[in-house]
Design a protein that fits this description.
With 295 residues, the protein is α/β, with parallel strands linked by helices. Helix content is 40%, strand content 14%. Strands 1, 2, 3, 4, 5, 6 and 7 form a 7-stranded mixed beta sheet that branches. A hairpin with a 5-residue loop joins strand 2 and strand 3.
Length: 295
C-alpha cells in the first residue's frame, strides 16, 4: 500500500515496474502490452480518489473471529456517477490492451456512460446478473465480468487503504480477504523470519497466513502440498494443493534489494500459471492474465 503517493508518483511507480519487467523478462512482452495501459491508468485513478473511511466503520469482533469479512462484496458496487467516470477512464485503456475485444468494450462503455441513474445495475450485475446484462448487450459474460471488476477495483483498493488499523487482538485465520472476502492473487514472504502474507485480488489488502496451510481448503497436510520454483527467478514460485487442486503464485521478498511492486508482480509469473494449469490445478482468483484455455 502506498497511501501517500501523488497521482503522478503512483502512475510512474507502475510504469517503472512494467519497464523493469520488460528488461528482465522480455518473453512477457505480449502480457505486458495487454495490461500496461490499464494498470497505469488504474493507479492514477485510485490516487486521485479521496481517502475516506466510512464514518460508521466498525468491526464486529465475533463475526470477524468466525471468518466474516468486514464488508460484503455488494457494498463495493459503484454509484452511477463513479461507474461512468471509471468507464470513461479505464475502458479506453482496456481497448488499447485488448483490441480483439474492442467492439465489446465499446458497447459496454456506451451502455454505462449513457445509462440513467439505474446504471448502478451494471455494478450490481457483478453479483447477480452478469449473464442477463451480457445477453442484453450481446457481449461475452466473461468480458463484462472482467470490465466491471476492473472498474470497481481502484475504488475497492482506496477503501481498503483508507481503513484505520484493526484493533489489537483480532485474529484472522482465513485464506480469503478479511476486508472484502475475495481470494488472494499472490502470496509473499517478508522479514527475517519469512512471514507469509497474502494479497487480495480485488481490494489489494495484505494479511498474514500460515506458511504450511493451503489458503483455499485449509489443509495442513504437507504431503498434499507441492512447490515449483521459477527457472532463473528462484524468488518466484507456485504453490500447489493436491487436496483442493488450487494453486497460488508466490514471491520471496526477503533478499530483494529492489522495490517489488506487488500490483504488477503476478504478471511476471504467467509461466507458473501455465505450469500449474497444465498439471490440472486452477486459480481461486480468476484474473485476466491467468485464464489459460477454457475455464
Amino acid at each position: 500500500m502506498n497511501p501517500s503517493l501523488l497521482p503522478q508518483q503512483a502512475s510512474e511507480r507502475i510504469q517503472k515496474a512494467f519497464d523493469r519487467l520488460r528488461n528482465q523478462v522480455p518473453q512477457l512482452a505480449n502480457v505486458l502490452d495487454a495490461f500496461e495501459a490499464l494498470f497505469v491508468e488504474r493507479a492514477l485513478l485510485k490516487a486521485e480518489l479521496p481517502a475516506e473511511a466510512p464514518s460508521d466503520f466498525s468491526i464486529d469482533p465475533v463475526k470477524f473471529s468466525r471468518g466474516v469479512p468486514i464488508f460484503s462484496r455488494d457494498e463495493f458496487a459503484l454509484s452511477p456517477e463513479w461507474l461512468k467516470d471509471a468507464a470513461d477512464r479505464l475502458i479506453p485503456a482496456m481497448e488499447k490492451g485488448f483490441p480483439g475485444i474492442g467492439e465489446q468494450l465499446r458497447v459496454i462503455r456506451e451502455a454505462i456512460v449513457n445509462s440513467e441513474p439505474e446504471g448502478q445495475s451494471f455494478s450490481s450485475a457483478y453479483q447477480t446478473g452478469i449473464e442477463d446484462w451480457a445477453e442484453k448487450l450481446k457481449v461475452d459474460p466473461a468480458t463484462l465480468r472482467f470490465v466491471l471488476f476492473q472498474l470497481e477495483k481502484p475504488f475497492a483498493e482506496k477503501l481498503a487503504e483508507s481503513l484505520p488499523p484493526f484493533p489489537e487482538g483480532l485474529e484472522w485465520l482465513k485464506g480469503y480477504c478479511p476486508v472484502c472476502g475475495s481470494w488472494p492473487e499472490l502470496g509473499f514472504l517478508e522479514g527475517k523470519e519469512g512471514h507469509r502474507k497474502l494479497r487480495c485480488s480485488f481490494c489489494g489488502n495484505n494479511w498474514g497466513f500460515m506458511r504450511t496451510q493451503c489458503p483455499f481448503c485449509e489443509t495442513l497436510d504437507q504431503d498434499k502440498m507441492e512447490i515449483h520454483f521459477a527457472e532463473n527467478r528462484e524468488f518466484e514460485r507456485v504453490e500447489l494443493c493436491h487436496e483442493c487442486k488450487k494453486y497460488l503464485v508466490s514471491i520471496d521478498l526477503r533478499d530483494r534489494a529492489d522495490e517489488m511492486v506487488l500490483e504488477v508482480a503476478p504478471l511476471a509469473m504467467v509461466h507458473l500459471d501455465i505450469l500449474a494449469q497444465e498439471k490440472g490445478f486452477s486459480p481461486a482468483a480468476i484474473l485476466g492474465w491467468n485464464v489459460i484455455g477454457p475455464t
